[in-house]
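Quick one, T. Sequence first:
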Amino acid sequence: MTRWMIIGASGMLGTELEARLRAEEQPFLAFGRHELDLCDTSAVRHLIAACRPDVVVNCAAWNAVDEAETREDEALAVNGTAVRPLAEACGRVGARMIQPSSDYVFDGTALDPYPEDARPCPVNAYGRTKLAGERAVLEVLPHGGYVVRTAWLYAATGHNFVRTMMRLEGEGMAPEVVGDQFGQPTWAGDLAARIVDLAVSDAPPGVYHATNSGHTSWYDLAREVFTLLGADPGRVKEIPSKDLTRPAPRPAYSVLGHDGWPRAGLPPMRHWKEALRESRVLAAG
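Structure tokens:
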């Protein structure tokens, strides 16, 4: 039986991962940010040494993309600097480590989905800090480190785009949404399931892209949310990115390829529309 440890368990992914492990009756320990400060290196080392988990999933992250532009040092402390001693602690007890990462490590200038071995080139501070965390895991744990890049994550809890659109629809609003940024909406429940599958497989260490299949724009995602809620999708207004002033630039195209999954003996994750329909997120609203 695999012994799991979830760090950053109070967020969208951590919550779904807990639920998945509980459903599969897998033993796990879960620590939210109030129970464990990832930046407290001594506490992290002692915890890993005392618990000796088989798999550690680091869901702790600084996810405030725009704030990272002016507070990059703070974002880097969580997303990058603190990841290395965690990976070192995992190495001492022989634990595998799974580090969720982001499509924002790419610049968004591609015309085809980014393969796992594409050269990262982040265009904002958040992407740079996530890339630092990736490199720490892969350098420290070449035989037991897994980087799992995802994108456009949503769940029934936490701050995310799908829940925002649900709220705006309920308030009778007609949201303006950018139509020239493309990516892959990914349900945190599907991502949690894939992480569990990855950890119990014989997959080689390295980088994997864990997003729901297909791709869309933020505008079309908003229209799909309205449609599934029984509302008029025509209420959603399309605007170009240049009309939306935000501190952090966003990649225009951050669609991720899934060529790595055959190495793990696993199929790509299901289509994003199917996941959205069956995720229970809309019903939870």
